[in-house]
Amino acid sequence: MFAAVLEEPGRIQMKEFRDPECPPGGLLIQVTHAGFCASDLKMWRVGHKDLRPPRVLGHEFSGFVIESRTDLWPMEPGERVAVWPGIPCCDCPACLRRQSHLCSNIQIMGFHRDGGFGELVVVPESTLSVGGVRRLPERLSNEVATLGEPLACCLNAQSKIGVGQGDRVLIFGAGVLGRLHERLARTRGASVVVMVDTDSRRTDTLGNALVADPNSDDWMEKVRNRIGGSADVVIPACSDPAALGWGFSLLDRGGRIAFFSGLGSKGSFPGPEHDQIHYQEWLLAGVYGCSPMHFHEALTLLAEGNVDVSDLVTHSVSLQEVELGFQLMAEKKSLKVILAHQRSHNGNHNVGIIPG
Fold first, then answer.
1. Chain centre to alpha carbon of residue 202
2. Three-state secondary-structure class, residue 202
3. Could you give the percent of the chain with pLDDT greater than 70?
């Protein structure tokens, strides 16, 4: 098998490996599509706390089964699947609460284990045991299925803060995750959804988006006018600490805010005082990743067309063009970049750049 290996931040090499063996109780997956995520971009640029290079990245992927050694979920070779990338221990308190994504010993394909930027991926028994593999219905393509994991992360956040009927929702960040949040919020019954981004390139094609000027407060008044005074829900789908500060200033009494994105080294939490949270009755929720349950629900939403992602995949690259994918992301010339493996089920998978 061939794989794009991150040897160290900034350096990816194409390598050929012996095909991995299907593990007892697990599956061997032929990857057809893998999504580029912001965390992959971070690993390519500067590394990641959970990354130990060399590593094959790619935690958002789909493909088909080429070998099965499991009795948990009998599968035939050729069945199309999408894979939740977690490898939980299945024994810790979080796992016993069916919150496998919070497992204290979790490993993640594309972080701790090799992922979808290689042609083959091993799925162990523990991932299968928590329902981490989903058969794809005929109406859901492998390419679209790669968006199941990021949508599931959005679903985790919105479920936790109870986004629902009549909510006024404010989203910071108009990238892929921000747009998934916007569409999911509408599906869940939000009455008004406004997106804010500091980069006009992210907002110029969106009728419901506004540009935030960090040097001016005028834009905040426009947001208030658009959203009806203040927001019931704020979701910062970006890693800019300023978005949290702005979010709190625009949050209504009794409002909810999801800490959806990590801040990394960009700054500390610019949060309100304890008494402000107390008297305003704000709900602050930390959110990280997604569970297999969220993953299944997200794929169902995609399969039934309840969340439209048809315009989000702007570029497709081959395995040999992985660095191009990162460059497109770094230069903000793309929304969702997909790696489309040339060796697929029928052996005739063509790839190229989709005009964005």
1. 18
2. helix
3. 96
For 25, the token pair is 């109780």
DSSP 19-33: PPPPPTT-EEEEEEE
Reading the block at residue 66, the tokens are: 């080429």
pLDDT at 266: 67
**At a CB cut-off of 8 Å and minimum separation 6, what does 321 contact?**
none
Question: Which residue is it, tokens 């016993």?
Answer: 96
| End-to-end Cα, the chain, rounded Å | 31
Distance CA 60, CA 45 (A): 19
Integer Cα distance of 228 and 226 in angstroms: 6
Residues β-bridged to residue 211: 197
Structure tokens that stand for 270 in this block:
């610019």
State what percent of residues in the chain have pLDDT above 90: 84
pTM, rounded to two decimals? 0.94
Distances (CA, A) of 110 to 98, 250, 354: 22, 37, 25
Using a 10 angstrom Cβ sphere, with 0-12 exposed, 13-18 middle and 19 or more buried, the burial of residue 273 is exposed
Q: Summarize the confidence of residues 134-138 as an average pLDDT.
A: 95
Position 61 pLDDT exceeds 90:
yes
Which string of DSSP letters, residue by residue, matches 89-109? -S-SHHHHTT-GGG-TT-EEB
Helices (H), the chain: 38-45, 93-96, 125-129, 142-145, 148-160, 176-187, 200-203, 218-227, 241-249, 274-280, 292-303, 322-330
- Segment holding 83, helix H or strand E: strand 80-83
Question: How many residues does the structure list for the chain?
Answer: 356
pLDDT band at 135 (very low <50, low <70, confident <90, very high): very high
